[in-house]
Each structure stands twice: as structure tokens, then as C-alpha cells.
Amino acid sequence: DAELGPAHPRWIRVNSLKSTVDEQLDTTFKGFEMVPTVEEVMASASTGKKVICLDGNVPNLIAASPGVDFTRTAAYKSGAIILQDKASCFPAYLLDPRPEDGDIIDACSAPGNKTTHLAGILHERGFAEGRRIFAFEKDKHRAKTLNKMVRAAGSDKVTVIRAGADFLKTDPNSPEFRGVGALLLDPSCSGSGIVGRDDTPEFHLPSAVSSTTSNNTTTSKNLKRKRPPSPPPAVLVDDDGAETVVSSEQALQSRLKALASFQLAILLHALAFPAATKVSYSTCSIHAVENEAVVLAALHSPLARARGWRVLARDQQVRGMREWPVRGDIESCDGDAVVAGACVRAQREDGRGVMGFFVACFVRDDTTIVGGD
Ligand code: SAM
């Protein structure tokens, strides 16, 4: 897609439950030329060369030439590699799950990219005996896909799938969850950051998505902006069935508001788990209302204040996330540079070859994880 700039690379996460990067370099990527940057991988779209580069931010991640079909490879079929956009790998990596975190909840799991990523990271670190990943998925149909993916990735032994279960209806104080130390939240969102989706025009980008703590700053100001033709009107239906014709911009704002209130509810629910000390919150949306605004509202909530939740500041993040230059929108963070710096963003048009994405992590100190059952 010309509007997306250079062709999007194929991002491949090597599933550490089943393989290693070295093994994949010798097999799936045999014959590919190794190049040092993702820019060169994207440029290979015009030369037809088959190239790869090892990602510098996320461990076990490889960028390969656009257009190469990996779905026919033995590694894909066996679950040794997983096709997952770089930005979509940020949440599990930023959450930094460790055996001492106890049980983990993935609150919104299907199709399971982040559930299996959590399992892969824990596998490398040594999964503590008896610990589990609870994977909630409200939609029964999507839960079937989750089940398949978890099995294919070899993470079924440590994952307890809650098919059809609404995370918002779980009781955080249930004995079953008393050992949950970390939660990953990746709730439904507008999907406006997804590559190839054009229902969100560029002019909805936050006005100043910028790095607050690094000289290596990315702003949205230097991105090419293109105003699309006037969108058609839309119809909003209220609770009584009354219809109102609104502009598609009004319909979008109304949809975003509803999504943001659902996203905040999920986040606050997660912050209530008694033994939790880490919670990541992510969306594949580019809208501040679903991102920084939700983080800020949660931070200012009585619950977060009472329980000592704060954002995981940039300088405390895992190396690859600390070094990632694109950060939150400082205006949407009420001018709070620490919160904006803690927010990790990805932009789909900035030449880094990723989808539009957002993630922030909440942490608190004063908890002892109690034994799971
Ligand atoms: N984390 C997934 C991945 O990386 O593969 C993608 C998750 S998708 C953005 C959001 C998912 O959350 C959808 O499958 C949706 O059905 C599910 N969901 C939405 N509300 C939920 C709730 N209250 N409880 C559990 N799952 C929910």
C-alpha cells in the first residue's frame, strides 16, 4: 500500500517453547541474506531479494522481506515460528513476566499471540512449578482459535483457557486468583493502528506523539498527512431505538468514548487483584482517548492511589522498551513527562515497519505473592 510508505516487513517471532533463533536461521531462513536494519528489509520489496534482520528491541524477533509467505513453512505449521507484528510483541516483553510473579492472567486473549509470548518468555526463565497462565476470552468462537494457537505453540500445559468467560465478571478476591502477580490487558479497541486498515484517517493522529526523555525523538508532525474525501454520514441508535444521523466523525468519537469506558473498566478491574504487582495495558489504536487518557484516568483513580499503583517509568523498563524512541503524547498526559515517557507508542507510517500500537505498564511494590493452589 503506497500510503503506508515502504512495504511492511514480515515480522516473525521465534517461539522459544519449540525452537531457537539459531535453529531457525539454519532452516526456515536458510538462503536469506542477513542485513543490519529493518529499513533495508523494507527496501528489499523493490529488489526482490530475500533478506532478514534480527530485531534490536524484542528478543527472538526477526524481520523478513515483505511478501514472503511463511505460512507454508514447516516451522509455521509446527508452531516453531509465529507471525506477529513487532509492536504486538511489546506488551508481554514490557510486562517482563518472571517465575516469582506467580500466576499470570491474560484478560483478553484470542487469538493468543500475547498468551503464547508470555508462555515463551516464562519457558526461557524457568516456569515455576504449578504456576499457570489464565487466558480469558469472552467470545466462544474466538476462544476456539485461542485454544488451537495455544496448543500449536506448545503452551497448553501451562495455560488455563477460560473460554466464554468475561474477565470483568471474575472476582479478583477469589482464592483461585490469590497467586496472580501479573496481568496482561489487551482489550478490544478501535483497531485504528492496524496496517492496511484505512478507516482511521491520518488526521486523527495525536498532535504531538513525542519522545519526552530522549533526543532520538519521533513526532507525528513530520509524517505525511493526507485528508481523505468527506466521509459519509452515520446513524447512531440510542437505548430506546431512536435514530440520529450524525457525521462519521461524530460516530467515531461516540464509538471511541464507549470503547474508552470499557477499557478503563477492564484496567481498574485488573488493578484490584490483591497480589498483582504488574499490569500491562495495550491497544492497537492510535487514539489518545483509548490510550494515554485511559492510563491517566486509571492512575488518578482512588483504587490506584490506595493500592500504590504507578506507571513503570521509561528508565525502569526492559532494555528494548527503554530504547524504543516513540513515546506517549505529553499533552494527553496533562503535561506529565514521566507518564508520557512511560507510555510506549508505535506508529505505522514512520519507517520503522510496525503497526500503530500503544502499551504502558503499571507497577507497585508492596506485595508478597502468596502460593497458588
Ligand atoms: N491479545 C490478543 C492477541 O494478542 O492475540 C488480541 C486480543 S483482542 C484485541 C481483544 C479480545 O478480547 C477479543 O478476542 C475479545 O473477544 C476479547 N474480550 C473483550 N472483552 C472481554 C472481556 N470482558 N473478557 C474477556 N475477553 C474479552
UniProtKB/TrEMBL annotation:
Keyword RNA-binding among UniProt keywords: yes
A GO biological-process term: RNA methylation
Active-site residues from the entry: C284
Region annotated Disordered, chain positions: 196-237
Binding site for S-adenosyl-L-methionine: C108, S109, A110, P111, G112, N113, K114, E137, D186
UniProt protein name: WSC domain-containing protein
Keyword S-adenosyl-L-methionine: yes
Alphabetical keyword list: Methyltransferase, RNA-binding, S-adenosyl-L-methionine, Signal, Transferase
Ranges for domain SAM-dependent MTase RsmB/NOP-type: 1-365
Compositional bias segments (type: Low complexity): 210-220
Family statement drawn from the similarity comment of this UniProt entry: Belongs to the class I-like SAM-binding methyltransferase superfamily. RsmB/NOP family.
GO molecular function: RNA binding; RNA methyltransferase activity
